[in-house]
């Protein structure tokens, strides 16, 4: 049994046991750097709704998205008749005023999950990942059409906490059959100064920048010292001793000061997370 299978089996145990289940963030084995600025990859609710018996008849899973807030902790996704809400991203201001439906999909039955052995075949990797994962926020097509009525799954806001819920909808009745709990809050990534500014591939170290900035500012301090010396020699005409001591004091104070002020600002620029990569690394599956 490969480590990946062990991981999936664990995931299934976590999802398959108990009744009060929550959507989970996709494993790093599948999706690196998740969440990104605008997407969240979740594990599909495999073996959740059909853990005890196979589902009969036509059904779909709906995924609802909600911005986390105190008043929305257990918002309902169905109306009085148990019909699932059809509110869209636009109607709910991106999940701020209520849950919106972001995705609808069929599930592979628990007993019939696609074999990961076939993932070595690169042409099948995305199909197989698709069976295991759903990515919220990965399709902004609908935003370009103001009259778009269908399912809309546009990019999420950065640095925002979202909750997610899966709902099992019986397509022959059109009603909610079952549902998970709301997930714990999941925060999208924050745009850091590093992501915005630094494009040099060989990320500079903080120390290197401090040295560069000190070297860059040395001529300035030498000039300052020189001007200071001239001023002092004009003010204090008494003897050459005083002149040299004042000169060296100014240069010695100036350099440590530049160390203290330039270091924090430059290192914070460099301390961002690695560049956002939304891709799922299929190659990681091959072991
Ligand atoms: C959907 O509803 C029908 C009629 O009530 C029922 O027979 C069927 O088992 C339901 N399907 C699921 C997946 O629960
Ligand atoms: C939210 O939860 C509280 C207590 O847990 C419950 O009384 C209330 O009915 C719930 N609201 C909804 C909309 O489910
Ligand atoms: C994106 O959404 C549009 C409309 O909702 C749909 O037609 C299109 O197939 C979707 N694209 C992808 C890559 O899922």
Automatic annotation (TrEMBL):
Residue ranges annotated as compositionally biased, kind Polar residues, are 259-270
One of the record's GO cellular component terms: plasma membrane
Keyword field = Membrane, Signal, Transmembrane, Transmembrane helix
Please tell me whether the keyword Repeat is annotated for this protein.
no
Query: Residue ranges of region Disordered?
Result: 242-271
Single GO biological process annotation from the record: urea transport
Positions of transmembrane segments? 208-235
> What name is this protein filed under?
Uroplakin 3A
Organism from which the protein derives: Rhinolophus ferrumequinum
